[in-house]
Amino acid sequence: MKKRHLTLAVLAGLLSTGGGQTSVYAGHDENLQSYTIDNIVVEAEQTINQFGDTVTEQSYYRTGGDVKVITREEIEKRHYTDLTEAIKRIPGVTFQNPGYRGGEYGYQTYNNGVLINGDSRVIVLIDGRRVDNLTSTRFNSGSTSGSKSTGVNIDQMIGIESVDKIEVIKGPGASVYGPDATGGVINIITRKGAVEQKGTLDLSTGSWHKHNYSLTLSGALQDDPTFHYFGTVTKTMSGDTEYVDGETGRTGTLGGSRWKEEAVNIRLDKDLGKEQSIKLWYNYKAGKDGYPISTPRLKYWNEAEWERIILASTVGKLDENNKWIGDPVYGDKKNPGYANLYALDGKVYNSFSRFKNNDWELKWTFDKDNGMESFVRLYYQNHRYSSRDKYKWSLSDDPAADYQARFPGGATAAELKQWIRENLAPFPGGDPALLQAWLEKTGGTATEPTEWQKERNQGIQVQYARAIGKNDVIASLTYDRAKTVAKSYDWDTGKYVESTTSRNTVIGYVQDKIHITDNWDLTPALRYTYYSDYDYTGNAGFKGKGKSHLITPVLNTEYLIDDTLSVYGGWTQIYRPVRQGDYTTLHGIYKTPLENERGDVWTLGVRKEFSQHSALAVHYDWTRMSNAIASFPIWDASIRRYKSTAVNAREDKTSFNITFDHAFDKHVTMSASYSHMDDKWRVKSGWNVDPSWGLNGEDDINTQMNRLRPQNHYALNLSYENQKLYTGLLINWYTGNNLRAFTDRRFLVLDWNINYSFTPDLTGYITVNNLTNEAYQTSYSSYNGLGSSTMPARSVMLGARYTF
């Protein structure tokens, strides 16, 4: 074994005792069997190749780059309850969460999103298979025209107990997964039953009446050790979440944010020989999550402000005779504290979002060569979504007529305020019975689908891989058919109208990883992508951009300079087709069709070992999009004002990550990191952009966009383990926040946990999220106002895990 291999093995072994806390080297996984990849034999004590890359069952797809792996060991020692909790400790990965768990169907702004190096074009995979739906309206443009999200809420995909590893690839360093993975890839690798029969029972309870229950069983049949099984059943629930208001420092309750979810996962594997196997996988996850849209702003949470907010949004403007003369006033800029009206959604009207996923996959692996699989895979996804969004703080759809009917001849300001006080204002101490009476009296504007919105994916993938001399060649072909069946309410007819949208995709891929020398890999690849036109049926059909196809090249390389230093670099061409949601806000009277997104991404990185205990990794990428889709305030002559509109624009984005891992001794390890990202946009000529955005001034559009996220992200991951005791602390520090979008210039968020093994089979634990009860936000909505997306306050969970 080379000196480098020995050094990395020692470092990996030390860091794995800290629960896999290193972000460069993965810890030991007892279910990982020996296999060969890139001429490296992978055993339990060594899970890295000669370049310092963490090796997993599917890492042969990778072509170099910044890759982080979260192991099952870390998941269990840190007691992550969902994928977001696990992934947020990785440098360069950020989440945009409105402060609650659920989300409104069809609105990206009000759903959780993940970004890698500031880019939302992230591909989510389960066992190397894409799980997005090209016809999805789960995350359409809504109020964020041209959203580039792939339409996946990762916390709704699969239960955390079913996850063996999480592979996060920054940038398009695994180009096999598609030409639109600009930000990167999140690959969720599921658990497989080992030979040993084993079961676990995990129970925990804590803040806000939150409870988690999970049961897992795995092993192999006694009379047939080649037949492996794994199964898990989980259930999680919580009452209303608390939050710390960033403007006042007070703790409030996000009424209506309670949720309940359950999951079942079954995986069966049959080994047909040394190189052949069959896998049958089934996944079910369902939940009902409350979503009050926005956290209340407590400085407006009093009787006087409620009267002002509701009066403005109910009857609009009144003249000196108390006659209605204008439209109701919506939005925080015109009606400060407007976001408090959303409290009615969750607390009074019990708005909710539901989802139910049923997925299965059948995979026949007919050969393995140098760790690479040749297989045929069939899959089917059936995802259903439903919601009730009941809101009614206006008197009616015609405020003027309703006001005059209720108050013939007008009403004095005092009379109107008294009526609001008795019937509307949910200020502290208000009578809920009056609110219910008002609801029954005025009805309400409601979206209550009688049937689920259905999203389906079905497809087949064929892959063939072969090692030919110094060449590891992979070729694959995937056919996917995506379909959405939706029902929307037609207010003109008073009936639900059904529409269907379908789109077919073919992705072909050829990659050759050339081992030029023992220290140098060069990996060229070609991708072919075909997208059919949208097949749409409904009351207002559209054909969209039309079918398109393109071949995109990729070139990556890794080079080992010496036993302690390696570098990597790559270039890939990006291609993302225009999606259904992008068409909803074509520019005003021009109706200019949007073009498919095109661009290039360059990556460069270096890894350096300073000793057998310390390692440094630096990653840089540059994305240059010639046809990115973004929303700008464009002049619309038909309405004679600037309107936020989706247009094609040029985007120039750079990101930088640096990570330092160190093992102080066999008990204490750490991983420290820093991330920074900058984005520059230029609107193409011919558009009249709102001058208040200052495109030619110092405070230009790029300044505006970069204000919507912290400029700097520092993270420190510490762990200590000594015999029966394990404890870990995750510190996230966000700085450079602009006060136009955040309630503070910096946020320091701490998550801590401690485990103690009473016996080899019984472990007790405590987890604390947001240890210092910090008021912080990860997203901003100008419509809802400052601090309206505050994240949860401090929560404590007490639990036990029993192995049998």
Overview of the structural elements:
- 10% of the residues lie in helices and 48% in strands.
- The radius of gyration is 27 Å and the shape is globular.
- The chain is built from nine helices and 35 strands.
- By secondary structure, it is mainly beta.
- The strands form five sheets. The protein has a 22-stranded antiparallel beta barrel. The protein has a five-stranded mixed beta sheet with strand order 3-8-9-6-7. A two-stranded antiparallel ribbon has the order 1-2.
- The two termini are 38 Å apart.
Annotate the secondary structure layout.
Blueprint: H1 3-16, E1 35-37, E2 40-42, E3 66-70, H2 72-78, H3 83-87, E4 93-96, E5 113-116, E6 122-126, E7 129-130, E8 163-170, E9 184-190, E10 198-206, E11 210-221, E12 224-238, E13 241-244, E14 251-254, E15 259-271, E16 277-290, H4 303-315, H5 343-348, E17 352-369, E18 372-391, H6 399-406, H7 413-423, H8 432-442, E19 445-447, E20 453-468, E21 471-490, E22 495-517, E23 520-531, E24 535-537, E25 548-562, E26 565-576, E27 597-611, E28 614-636, E29 641-663, E30 668-683, H9 701-706, E31 712-722, E32 725-735, E33 747-759, E34 762-769, E35 795-803
Parallel strand pairs: 6-9
Antiparallel strand pairs: 1-2, 3-8, 4-5, 6-7, 8-9, 10-11, 10-35, 11-12, 12-15, 13-14, 15-16, 16-17, 17-18, 18-19, 18-20, 20-21, 21-22, 22-23, 22-24, 23-25, 25-26, 26-27, 27-28, 28-29, 29-30, 30-31, 31-32, 32-33, 33-34, 34-35
